[in-house]
Amino acid sequence: MPNIIEITDFHAPELDMFARLTEAQLRNRKEPAKGIFIAESGKVIGHALDAGYTPVAFLMEHKQLAGAAELLARCGDVPVYTASNDLLSQLTGFALTRGVLCAMRRPAPLDAQTLCKSAKRICILDGIVDATNVGAIFRSAAALGMDGVLLTPTCCDPLYRRAVRVSMGTVFQIPWARIGSQASDWPRAGIAQLQAWGFQTAALALSDTAISIEDPRLKQPEKLAVILGTEGDGLSSQTIAQCDYTVCIPMYHGVDSLNVAAASAVAFWQLRRK
After folding, report:
1. What b/e sequence results for 74-91 when a residue is b if at least 16 CB atoms lie within 10 Å of its CB, and e otherwise?
2. What pairs with residue 234 in β-bridges?
3. Does the first or last residue of the chain, that is N or C, have fewer Cβ atoms within 10 Å of its Cβ?
4. How many Å apart are CA 28 and CA 48, to the nearest integer?
5. Mind listing the pLDDT tens digit for each residue in 119-164?
6. Alpha-carbon dihedral of residues 115, 120, 125, 130, nearest 10 degrees?
């Protein structure tokens, strides 16, 4: 049975996770096992539960309780804090457009080598810092044939609330891991690891020497890692120099490039395993 709790005190410490803790505090780098993240909307929370994530507490509008009955039934006696939408907007500082939030335990980190062992097509997010872009890339990666996602040490956390929401829960459906723990681990050491694990590497970048994404050579590698660069600057010259291929998407009407999330969808579709 769900444990329904009417909110009477906005300052109750059990509500901090929803209203007063920053993303960094939720993540809890010092004690990762105690880290949590916030999932928003019934659909996204359902994907997380399907993937084995553990709920800690819910925050939802009164009017959402009936519609969320099946979802809540999956969560035992996890506390469900509830109030009117107006009161919840005052608490969180924003309107709950989807009516329900769920705090969940962060999973134990997946090892990059373990992820790569059986993968044939992966993408690397190199220093991408916008949570919206990260979420959109995860959604494309899951939908368009990637086997996993690796994040460089400076990349945005895929479990930031906005990244989770934009991904529509696909951050729970496709495996991901960090490749390296500090900035110095990328690109030299990281790309060397990928190559040692049997991957050829394709840097998506604007370059006079880049080959078209339609080049038949890109269909030949058994294992291919597609590397996407940060917003604005793209990939560093050091990263590009270490990769087996530099790849570009042909453009028309004088457009020089696409947003990294849009470019990822084109690349994943074209370079997926046939």
Report:
1. ebeebbbbbbebeebeeb
2. 230
3. C
4. 20
5. 999 999 999 999 999 999 999 999 999 999 999 999 999 999 999 9
6. -90
